[in-house]
Amino acid sequence: LTQEHFSRILHELSEKGLIVVEGRRIHIRDVDALRTYDL
What we know:
Elements lengths: L2 H13 L3 E4 L2 E4 L2 H6 L3
Antiparallel strand pairs: 1-2
């Protein structure tokens, strides 16, 4: 997993409303949706 790929995944999950990225912290907004989300 490259840093670029990880960054894209975080951005995608953030756009979907599943997570919120604040600096170095990641807040999970919807645990159930995140568990079933297909990357």
